[in-house]
């Protein structure tokens, strides 16, 4: 269920209640289904750890390859981290 679906359902179930009660119902429903509301620029621990795993994977090979290959891996790192955005599971490439 998408976050929009969760919000829509919470609002429908609480349609006759006050705005404050509706807001609280939406917050509870989102939390219950695993969604969190983040402020602009705020990062969650799961995303940070996923990015760190990608960086660790790239760094692990740096000591066993040539300087050129190591440099190439560092150049690929930002795109590898950006690829996490397309991955709902927090693993590179959605795996």
Summarize the entry for a quick read.
The chain is mainly alpha-helical. The chain has helices at 3-13, 19-32, 45-62, 67-82.
Break the fold down into its secondary structure elements and pairings:
Elements: H1 3-13, H2 19-32, H3 45-62, H4 67-82
Helix pairs in contact: 1-2, 3-4
Mean of all residue-level pLDDT scores: 81
Approximately what portion of the residues adopt beta-strand conformation?
under 5%
Oligomer: single chain
Q: What is the rounded distance between the termini? A: 20 Å
Number of structurally distinct domains: 2
The sequence of SSEs as H and E is HHHH
Characterization of this structure:
With 95 residues, this protein is mainly alpha-helical. It folds into two domains: 3-32, no CATH class; 45-94, no CATH class. Helices cover 62% and strands 0% of the residues. The chain contains four helices and no strands. The protein has helices at residues 3-13, 19-32, 45-62, 67-82. α1 (3-13) crosses α2 (19-32) and α3 packs antiparallel against α4. The radius of gyration is 20 Å and the shape is rod-shaped.
Highlighted features:
95 residues, mainly alpha, 2 domains, 4 helices, 62% helix, rod-shaped, disordered C terminus
């Amino acid at each position: 269920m998408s976050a929009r679906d969760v919000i829509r359902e919470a609002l429908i179930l609480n349609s006759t209640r006050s705005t404050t009660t509706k807001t609280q119902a939406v917050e509870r429903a989102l939390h219950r289904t695993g969604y969190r509301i983040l402020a602009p620029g705020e990062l969650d621990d799961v995303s940070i750890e996923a990015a760190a795993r990608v960086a660790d994977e790239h760094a692990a090979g740096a000591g066993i390859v040539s300087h050129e290959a190591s440099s190439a891996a560092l150049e690929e790192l930002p795109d590898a981290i950006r690829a996490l955005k397309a991955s709902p599971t927090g693993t590179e490439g959605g795996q």
